[in-house]
Amino acid sequence: MSENKIINLMTNGSEKSLIIAEELKHKFEALGYTANYDIDENAVLNICVGGDGTFLRAVHKTGFSSTPYVGINTGTLGFFQEISVLEIDKFIKNFVAGDYDMEKLDLLEGRVYSREHKEYFHNALNEFVIRSEDTSIIHLDVFIDDNHLQTFAGDALLVSTPSGSTAYNYSAGGAVLYRSLKGYQLTPLAPINSKAYRSLLNPLVLPSDSVLTLKRRPEDKAGTLVINDGLNVLCDNFDSIKIKTSDKWINKLQFNNNWYWLNIKDKFI
Ligand code: NAP
User: How much is the pTM?
Assistant: First the structure.
């Protein structure tokens, strides 16, 4: 392990999470670590105490840092949160001994273009959702590597990473993609298939090197919401978004190699 012994602690602010975070702070400090609630970019570990929302917000707050993340589950589901409250001592012991694997979680990169040709850059760990600001139907031309595939009409298009495939994507009928698979998924939300519109009804899995472009049809008048891991970004003059697998990724500690399937069974079946 490196000489640096700084640990970043992040919580969802609930009473239970704050108590657990204080317990972690004291236990790590007794072992010579510095654990605090400010983000130090030189830290050796980011600990997220809460649920998946806490994990997602911690990843955004730390700027998709190369410092590894681990989740302590005090949330309702905790799909990213491998460590239960009862396993804290075992987790600390294994972490200090270096007894863990490092899991790479791919990110999506989204470049939003305005009609004035301005460009805005975003990363997502779970997904991007593109929908109208109000409840109106969104019309999007879908291009894969510059090939026009369809003009989508419906509630929204959702583009998820493999690790985000168990989140909103799963509720929308998308497939669960194993976390280390290289690729991403395009899932329609309430696609319209009628005499007036022809939209793909099923999710599409794309290879990680393909570029997906979603371009708003000019006849749409409502603003566009780009929802990034649950965070809404309103884009008034939205023209298009180009999405691909990012060159960046995040690292997550993994203590039990069977955890992924245990988690799927435990949380979904
Ligand atoms: P939230 O609305 O408070 O929570 C949404 C639920 O999704 C929570 O139960 C959360 O688990 C779970 N979740 C998040 N990421 C997951 C993942 N990768 N695999 C499995 N479950 C996951 O919002 P939030 O906590 O800020 O999370 C934002 C995420 O909510 C978005 O990225 C989106 O995927 C998801 N979402 C889902 C729906 C839907 O399923 N219809 C609608 C909107 C948003 P915890 O309880 O542990 O936090």
Answer: 0.96
